[in-house]
Automatic annotation (TrEMBL):
Any one GO molecular-function label of the UniProt entry: ATP binding
Family note: Belongs to the ABC transporter superfamily.
Coiled coil: none
The protein's name: Sodium ABC transporter ATP-binding protein
SUPFAM superfamilies hit by this protein: P-loop containing nucleoside triphosphate hydrolases (SSF52540)
Domain ABC transporter intervals: 2-230
Gene3D superfamilies listed in its UniProt record: P-loop containing nucleotide triphosphate hydrolases
Alphabetic keyword roster: ATP-binding, Nucleotide-binding, Transport
Pfam families listed in its UniProt record: ABC_tran
The UniProt record lists the keyword Transport: yes
Source taxon at top rank: Bacteria
Alphabetical list of InterPro entries matching this protein: AAA+_ATPase, ABC_transporter-like_ATP-bd, ABC_transporter_ATP-binding, P-loop_NTPase
Length: 234
């Protein structure tokens, strides 16, 4: 589903990604872990066609990143640190706007359905600028999946969320997993990674330090491998 070969990214005379090789199969849920500044978010931005790689090859769903960025964009749902919402718009207006961009049939019906799913029907027509962080993230989750993407990119999605929003996000991830979606999640939350991910990729200094299947949701194994690769604890 995703093939990355010798991916390099340089910016401001700094090499952020240093020859990433990564292959992700359709339907995998992959947690991307690593210290701050390791290049995790940059990797997601490259995949989301928001940042151009300096060199290397990236193919998504059979499309070449350099030649077919438009086709690739349609495959992704992307949830970055920022919500990407228009704060003077209501949830309904925001979601209808993004639904139309992606050519979703019956955009208003789809928008109303998703606002209900994230538990904010009562605020359907209120401006987003009046919402709490957790409420904004709920609508941002709906925005990311408005077009029913086959690939979901999540950049520290649980940060700052209340328990209700965490539950909604996890239900979205699990539902998409059941439907065969491919999911990449950058996170510092080992508990969420262990509960949701089948595979873990550890990034350190712009390189992949480890890549392993997480069996039986074993958070102890995850902690041990991370400590060994990132903190030098054996």
């Amino acid at each position: 589903m995703i093939e990355i070969k010798k991916l390099m990214k340089q910016a401001d005379n700094k090499t952020i990604l240093k020859g990433i090789d990564l292959s992700i199969k359709k339907g995998e849920t992959v947690g991307i872990l690593g210290p701050n500044g390791a290049g995790k978010s940059t990797l997601l931005k490259v995949l989301a066609t928001l940042v151009k790689p300096s060199s290397g090859e990236v193919a998504v769903g059979g499309y070449d990143l350099k030649k077919n960025p438009g086709e690739i964009k349609r495959l992704f749902g992307y949830l970055p640190h920022s919500s990407l919402l228009y704060d003077h718009y209501s949830p309904l207006e925001n979601l209808v706007f993004f639904a139309k961009i992606y050519g979703v049939k019956n955009p208003e019906e789809r928008a109303v359905q998703l606002v209900k799913e994230v538990g904010l029907s009562f605020f359907l027509n209120d401006p987003v600028k009046n919402f709490s962080r957790g409420m904004i993230q709920r609508i941002a989750i709906a925005r990311a999946i408005i077009h029913e993407p086959s690939i979901l990119l999540l950049d520290e999605p649980h940060t700052g969320l209340d328990q209700g929003a965490i539950g909604i996000l996890n239900n979205v991830i699990l539902s998409m997993k059941e439907n065969g979606a491919t999911i990449l999640m950058v996170t510092h939350d080992f508990k969420q990674a262990a509960e949701l991910c089948d595979r873990i990729v550890i990034v350190k200094n712009g390189k992949i330090a480890d890549d392993f299947i997480l069996r039986n949701r074993n958070i102890t194994t995850l902690n041990e491998k991370y400590s060994h690769q990132v903190e030098g604890v054996s």
